[in-house]
């Protein structure tokens, strides 16, 4: 660790293993083992860390059994020798919420997003069942800035966000989908430490770094209209560990946003708890409806805008020249988490303005596409009416039949409908390759090697 | 000055014979070379076979509006051809001003369609609004049977908007004079030029000529086979206008064969005339930066390979760095243009 109180790892890759198991069926206590290996935890005094963590977090917990070595071998084979191994027992699992596993997975997923170099392995062995889940970034992007520590994000587009609208007939071979996103660094915002936090011992410089990520990426389809459907805010402590969002602070976000200025009708914070919403705060947007209603379902599917989600990372950063030991950093992080609501409220105008700017940038791109779409639609109407004027006025049977045959229709009414649909598909599906996009042609490589790009 | 004697037109008649001989002596190969080059002294500027193709896409934001405009104009043309009716470019523009934005858009697209379909604009049933005027010893019938007599001494006739439909041209004119500007044309009309130097025809395109004015000059040459002289200002712009009549424009190069009259002669105002006639210095204007740039550009054009005397005149202008309008001759004497300058030029062969 640097003597100047900065947090550095000598690398950001490796593995993290979470083992949860019960000794026997119906056991009341659940055992947990956390193991780490790889360069991301090098330079840390492991023994001191283990003692410190045990003392801080589990002072009254009985020591557990050691984990089954068979569970550790695959991990060490993949990531090298263990640098951290911590085991403990947890309280009565029978009183936990029924979906506690989903909560654990959600936290690990959020962790993986901001620590894409670390592969996370979760293994659950209880109630005579075993389940294994790996969290591994398929596509990584390094977000670098001169005055900021580098950040490795998982930018792969989630499965549920991928969209597979039907492609136009005979589409060009070069068309492909971008499988990832392109993070935008919103910069660093200094934060004032409120008096309560200072009294608690939190000193030094505190700031928050904002990074946004939009899914799915449609940069390669410049004519495709988009619609921002949801905004998810994830807060991370200075060690890049996701923290429970200060719900009180973020509940006021919708009222603090000038939605009209952003081009939105409103922002809402839904109450439901889908897996996606377990960590972080999620807002759904309300858009102004100005699309024509189509009777034809097939037509409607090709006209609908692509629904995008904005992921907003709030990465807290803390620097204290008097922090030199790992325990100091752990203590500072705990203080930050404890006083997070107060910290953000203390800096509310600046934080809200920064969030508004990031959302505004995403909306700007969407509004730009909307204007372009209007231009295309306006031109499409003229093209269609002019073409139909020629065909319907023609007295040349051969010419008319040739037109019908080409479009595989029987009469001018059907011709108009099919021609209009074809034209709109051609316009919407215009493909322009973008060098920084992660195209589908790379999928085979990604399966084996993954992909990392530097975005900034 | 009366011009009843044949002596006055002796050199003009001689010129006419030379021109006719040069036409008869030419083989088809001279006019229609196997390898079409961009410039042919017998035709003018023409579209080369290696021309570039522009693609207008319907799915590109930058070109989708143009794509729609082209389709719209094609549909208008289709209806016109089908109904055998005609419309001017102005009519087409007003059909949908919001779509087209400007008259220029319509003009450009109509020319593009004409080039793309390899037909004359007349075949598209879209006519240019004529702006030219004509006067002199000339009678003809319009396509609809209207009889046009250009011999009125006080008023000129507008150039027909359907030049290709003109028939039964009757004229005993010895020459045709193209006048660059309307102001000069009106001066000549007021001075009864056509009667004084009868029989003759004069025509103006009022600056850069429209297609109909060019078609009219071409038609007069094809029908009457008489010398055609250009009277333009002694400046780069005037010279360029003369070249449009003679060699054509890049924009209409695809129709060069129907628009150019390579036999056009430069009557005046020559840069050398300014010195020779001692035009007062107060009437001379310095060349602007733009004039100099245009002059440099003109000197690079392929015209001068076959016109060494023209090149000399332009180089003289470049050296003297002055220009003058035809109106500057009025500073010598009020009626100098019609009473002295033009009659002497025409009588003594003062053309290039």
UniProtKB/TrEMBL annotation, chain A:
Pfam families, A to Z:
DUF4554
Which InterPro entries does the record cross-reference, listed alphabetically? TopoVIB-like (IPR028040)
Q: Which GO terms describe its biological process?
A: meiotic DNA double-strand break formation
Protein's name according to its UniProt entry: Type 2 DNA topoisomerase 6 subunit B-like
Q: Which organism is it from?
A: Oryzias latipes (Japanese rice fish)
UniProtKB/TrEMBL annotation, chain B:
Domain named Topoisomerase 6 subunit A/Spo11 TOPRIM: which ranges?
Answer: 175-346
- PROSITE patterns assigned: TOPO_IIB
Where does it reside? Nucleus
Q: What is its main location?
A: nucleus
This entry's Enzyme Commission designation comes to 5.6.2.2
InterPro entries listed in its UniProt record: Meiotic_Spo11 (IPR013048), Spo11/TopoVI_A (IPR002815), Spo11/TopoVI_A_N (IPR013049), Spo11/TopoVI_A_sf (IPR036078), TOPRIM_Topo6A/Spo11 (IPR034136), WH-like_DNA-bd_sf (IPR036388)
Show where the Spo11/DNA topoisomerase VI subunit A N-terminal domain sits.
66-126
Name the UniProt record assigns to this protein: DNA topoisomerase (ATP-hydrolyzing)
């Amino acid at each position: 660790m640097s003597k100047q109180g900065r947090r550095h790892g000598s690398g950001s890759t490796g593995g993290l293993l979470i083992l949860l198991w019960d000794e026997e069926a119906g056991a009341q206590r659940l055992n947990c083992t956390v193991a780490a290996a790889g360069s991301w935890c090098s330079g840390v005094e492991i023994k001191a860390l283990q003692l410190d963590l045990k003392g801080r977090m589990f002072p009254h917990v009985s020591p557990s059994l050691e984990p089954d070595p068979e569970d550790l071998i695959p991990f060490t084979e993949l990531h090298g020798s263990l640098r951290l191994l911590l085991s403990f027992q947890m309280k009565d699992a029978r009183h936990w919420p029924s979906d506690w596993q989903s909560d654990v997975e959600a936290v690990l997923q959020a962790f993986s997003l901001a620590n894409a170099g670390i592969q996370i392995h979760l293994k659950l062995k209880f109630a005579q069942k075993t389940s294994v889940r790996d969290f591994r970034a398929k596509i990584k992007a390094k977000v670098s800035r001169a005055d900021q520590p580098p950040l490795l994000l998982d930018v792969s587009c989630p499965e549920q966000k991928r969209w597979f609208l039907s492609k136009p007939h005979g589409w060009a071979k070069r068309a492909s989908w971008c499988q990832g996103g392109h993070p935008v660094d919103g910069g660093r915002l200094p934060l004032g430490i409120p008096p309560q936090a200072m009294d608690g011992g939190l000193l030094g410089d505190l700031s928050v770094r904002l990074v946004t990520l939009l899914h799915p990426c449609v940069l390669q389809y410049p004519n495709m209209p988009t619609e921002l459907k949801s905004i998810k805010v994830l807060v991370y402590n200075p060690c890049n560990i996701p923290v429970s969002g200060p719900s009180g602070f973020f509940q006021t976000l919708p009222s603090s946003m000038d939605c009209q200025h952003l081009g939105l009708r409103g922002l809402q914070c839904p109450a439901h708890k889908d897996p996606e919403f377990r960590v972080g705060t999620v807002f759904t947007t309300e858009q102004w409806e100005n699309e024509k209603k189509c009777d034809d379902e097939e037509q409607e599917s090709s006209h609908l805008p692509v629904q995008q989600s904005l992921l907003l990372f709030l990465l807290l950063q803390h620097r204290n020249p008097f922090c030199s030991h790992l325990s100091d950093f752990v203590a500072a992080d705990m203080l930050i988490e404890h006083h997070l609501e107060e910290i953000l409220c203390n800096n509310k105008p600046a934080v809200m303005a920064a969030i508004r700017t990031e959302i505004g940038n995403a909306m700007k791109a969407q509004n730009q596409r909307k204007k372009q779409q209007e231009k295309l639609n306006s031109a499409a109407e003229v093209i269609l009416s002019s073409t139909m004027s020629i065909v319907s006025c023609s007295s040349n049977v051969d010419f008319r039949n040739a037109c019908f045959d080409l479009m595989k229709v029987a009469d001018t009414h059907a011709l108009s409908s099919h021609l209009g649909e074809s034209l709109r598909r051609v316009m919407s599906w215009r493909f322009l390759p973008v060098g920084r996009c992660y195209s589908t042609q790379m999928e085979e490589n990604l399966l084996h090697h993954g992909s990392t790009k530097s975005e900034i | 000055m009366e011009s009843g004697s044949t002596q006055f037109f002796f050199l003009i008649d001689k010129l006419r014979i030379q021109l006719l001989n040069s036409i008869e002596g030419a083989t088809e190969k001279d006019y229609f070379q196997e390898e079409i080059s961009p410039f042919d002294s017998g035709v003018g500027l023409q579209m080369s076979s290696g021309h570039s193709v522009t693609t207008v896409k319907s799915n590109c934001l930058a070109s989708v509006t143009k794509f729609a405009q082209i389709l719209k104009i094609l549909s208008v043309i289709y209806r016109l051809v089908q109904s055998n009716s005609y419309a001017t470019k102005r009519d087409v523009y007003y059909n949908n001003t919001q779509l087209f934005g400007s008259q220029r858009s319509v003009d450009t697209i109509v020319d593009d369609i004409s080039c793309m379909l390899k037909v004359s604009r007349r075949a598209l049933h879209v006519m240019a609004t004529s702006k030219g005027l004509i006067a002199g010893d000339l009678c003809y019938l319009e396509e609809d049977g209207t009889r046009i007599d250009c011999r009125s001494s006080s008023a000129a006739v507008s150039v027909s908007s359907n030049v290709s439909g003109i028939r039964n041209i009757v004229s005993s004119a010895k020459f045709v004079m193209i006048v660059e500007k309307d102001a000069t044309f009106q001066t000549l009309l007021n001075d009864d030029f056509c009667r004084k130097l009868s029989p003759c025809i004069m025509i103006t395109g009022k600056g850069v000529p429209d297609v109909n004015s060019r078609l009219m000059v071409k038609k007069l040459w094809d029908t009457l086979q008489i010398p055609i002289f250009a009277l333009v200002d002694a400046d780069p712009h005037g010279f360029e206008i003369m070249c449009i009549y003679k060699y054509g424009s890049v924009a209409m190069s695809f129709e060069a064969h129907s628009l150019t009259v390579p036999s056009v002669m430069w009557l005046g105002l020559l840069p050398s005339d300014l010195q020779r006639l001692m035009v007062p210095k107060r009437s001379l204007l310095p060349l602007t930066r733009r004039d100099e740039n245009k002059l440099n550009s003109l000197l690079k054009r392929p015209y001068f390979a076959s016109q060494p005397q023209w090149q000399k005149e332009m180089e003289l202008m470049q050296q003297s760095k002055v220009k003058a309008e035809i109106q500057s001759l009025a500073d010598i004497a009020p009626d100098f243009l019609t009473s002295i300058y033009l009659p002497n030029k025409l009588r003594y062969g003062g053309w290039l």
